[in-house]
Structure formats: structure tokens, C-alpha cells
Amino acid sequence: MVKIVSVHARQVLDSRGNPTVEAELSTSRGHFSAIVPSGASTGAHEAMELRDGAKEYAGKGVLKAVENVNSIISPKVSGRDFFSLDELDSFLNSLDGTANKSALGANAILPVSMAFCRALASHESMRLFEYIGRVSGTKDFVLPVPFLNVLNGGKHAGRENDIQEHMLVPSGFASFSEALRAGTETYHVLKGILRKKYGGEAALLGDEGGFCPKSASLDDRLEMMGKAVSEAGYSGEVHIALDCASSEFFKDGNYNIDGKEYTPMELVDFYAALVERFGLVSIEDGFAEDDWSGWRLFNSRMGKKIEIVGDDLLVTSVSRMKAAIERKACNALLLKVNQIGTVTESVEAARLAFRSQWRVMVSHRSGESEDSFISDLVVGLAAGQSKFGAPARSERTAKYNQLLRIEEALAETGKAKFAGKGPSA
Ligand code: PGA
Ligand code: ZN
């Protein structure tokens, strides 16, 4: 049982220079804070992010959400004992009273939930990942295979009708730090290839720290990634994955990529050919958030061969996941804490995925901060895969650096297990 002494929220800035909410929660053990991330290619079914819509910050201020923490949540929880994170999160949900957290805002509820999770870990004298492990029933901690978004497209690079994320997947290594090194070395080799082919501008960075070669087609991008992997010396150990974020280029039943129209059936063939040519191991949001038949088609054709990840489709929601399980729409969950709005519900989503033999990838948002909560989350859940952007820009490296710290802490007990499959994978 832990007594919350006080909760205070403030407006701070995220990695895109947009306002976001930081909450600071105090207990007898100290002060615990957390910052909420924010997406750009957000799913229509996500929990509601409250924005002021006023003149300041072009409507993007979050002072209403801040006020909801300070004037509604804080008076109700301050001076009160909570037995568990679940108890606080359920209380916050009932205080909000809506299905999508639109009364208080997911960006008001989530930082309080995350900060209290940190407080509970401290009261148990545990590291955050250990505490999350206890809450989620994890037996053995696992360091994730990092999915590094090295080429940014779509909304993260100011482009339309474009595949959003092109990721390196360094899975064939014995440890997380070796995988991160190989992925980062490949990122630098890719930078050299881009500069040589397109000039210095092609190596400018997008929202998630990946390069944005303006004139490179999808084929060019994937070819250059393959070339970078082999020049870096990691063929067979570093693979390639995509997040298409296809809801962004879905219109009237069809998909428009780079000026070319595809029916859902044609898009399945298009992706299958990419898998064949470039050895893609994972495709996220290949189909739009409500195009269930497209998802089913794709999963029945490719689901045994590659990972098919639902992001906008599932929005980390147990009810959307149940629909996807029933319809056999995908085989992996992308887990984003702010899509659902509490830590407890995020853990529940992961647990449902594990029970359904799905894979789980814990993800950042394109708008991030220095908060590295999700690094502890991915290890605490033993999810096995992380999607934290390129190995550049402090809001991304904050996450990788925290994983390196966790790896070191686990190594001291001989338990720094890596989710990759070793050099032969
Ligand atoms: P977002 O992008 O944070 O802008 O939604 C990330 C993703 O689509 O996975
Ligand atoms: Zn996505």
C-alpha cells in the first residue's frame, strides 16, 4: 500500500517541439515523474489525446489536460492509499467515465499511471523493469531485438502516399548491445551510401531519427538498406522490416503508394514480392485500420512466413485485439502506452497477445521525450521486440541507453538474455 502525497502536472515540450504533459507524483519515498508521448499517424480508434485548440501553440497546447490532473485527479488521489497500480488505474478510468478517456484525456491519465508505477517500484526497492515484471507475471526477463527505423517516410518526413518506416532488425546476435552496435554501424554505412548517391541533403533526419532521401523510391530505399547491411558485414544477421502506416494512403477501398493504385488483393501481391526480394521479416499496418478483409487476406497468405503487426488496427486495445484474434487478422501486437492510456491496460494487452501466441513489439511514438519508461516496459514484459526509432537523437537514444543499463544490471545476475536468435538466425 502506498499513499500518494500529491500529484502535479505541467506542460513541457516533446521532440517535435509540441506541448505534452509531464506529471510529478510524490510519496514518502520521493518524487516520481513521467512524460506522455504523441503520435502523428495516429489511429482513429486510439484513446483521446486532449489538445486545447486555442491560439497558443497553434491549437496544440495541453493546458486542459494539465488542469484535469491538477484540479480533478490530484484532489481525488492525494492523501489516499492505493494497494496496486491496477487500483489507481481503475480509479482514474472511473473518474474519467468514458470508453476512450475523452473526459480527462489519455494524456492526463497516462503520466499519472506511469509516475505511480515508478513510485510503486521504488517503494518495493525494485528497478522499474523488475516491478513491471512482477505486475505482468514475467518469469524471465528478455532484452528486445531493436527495430531501428533508419529511413523515415510518410508523415514523419513530410510526404504523402508513402511507406512510413524502413527498419533494420539486428536479430542474429548473442546480446542486445551487440545487436545495437551492428544496427548502428549499418545506420552509419547507410548514411554514406545515401550521401554518395543523392548528396548531403538525403542524410537529413526525419521525426524518428531516420534519414529522408527525398527522391528515393521504395525499391531504392530497400536496395540501399540491403547494400548497407552487406557492406557493414552483417548479411544474414541484420534483417529488414516495414511499417507501412497504410491508413494514411487508403482511400475509397484502395491504396495509393507513390501515385500507383492497388486493390487490397494487389497490395497482398505487392508485399509478397517485397518479402521475396528483400527478405522482409515483419510488416506493420500493411492494411488500413478498418480494412479487416485486407488484413485477413494478407495474414492467411503471409502469416506463417513473416510477422504481421497491428498498430492502428489494434490500438493496444483488448477489445480490438479480440476482434483481430477471432478474425485471424494478424500475428503480432504493436504496444503503445498512450494508445490505451494506462500502464495496467497496456500490460493486459500484452498478456492477451502472449496467450494468443502473438508476438509483442513495444513502441515509442514519433513525438517522444527523454522519458525512457518503455525501455523498462519492454524488458519487464519480456516482449522480445522494441521499436524505438533510429539510433540517433536523444529522445530515441534515451531508450537505447536505458536498455544498455538494464542489460548491464541483468548481466550482474547472469540473466541478460537477448531475444535474438544468435548468429545463425
Ligand atoms: P506515430 O507513428 O507515433 O506517428 O503514430 C508510429 C507508428 O505508426 O508506429
Ligand atoms: Zn505504425
Textual characterization of the structure:
- The chain is an alpha/beta fold.
- The chain has two domains: 2-125, Enolase-like, N-terminal domain (Enolase-like, domain 1, 2-Layer Sandwich), CATH 3.30.390; 136-418, TIM Barrel.
- 40% of the residues lie in helices and 19% in strands.
- It contains 13 helices and 16 strands.
- It has helices at 63-77, 85-96, 106-123, 128-136, 176-198, 218-232, 264-278, 292-302, 318-326, 337-340, 343-355, 373-380, 394-412, and strands spanning 2-4, 6-13, 19-27, 30-35, 80-82, 145-152, 165-170, 238-243, 250-251, 254-257, 260-262, 280-284, 307-310, 332-335, 359-363, 384-387.
- The strands form four sheets. The chain has an eight-stranded mixed β-barrel, surrounded by six helices.
- Strand 13 (307-310), helix 9 (318-326) and strand 14 (332-335) form a beta-alpha-beta unit.
- Helix 1 (63-77) crosses helix 3 (106-123), helix 3 (106-123) crosses helix 4 (128-136) and helix 7 runs parallel beside helix 8 (292-302).
- The mean pLDDT is 97.
- Bound molecules: 2-phosphoglycolic acid and zinc ion.
- Zinc ion binds at residues 243, 245, 284-285, 311.
Short précis:
It catalyses: (2R)-2-phosphoglycerate = phosphoenolpyruvate + H2O. Catalyzes the reversible conversion of 2-phosphoglycerate (2-PG) into phosphoenolpyruvate (PEP). It is essential for the degradation of carbohydrates via glycolysis. The protein is 40% helix and 19% strand.
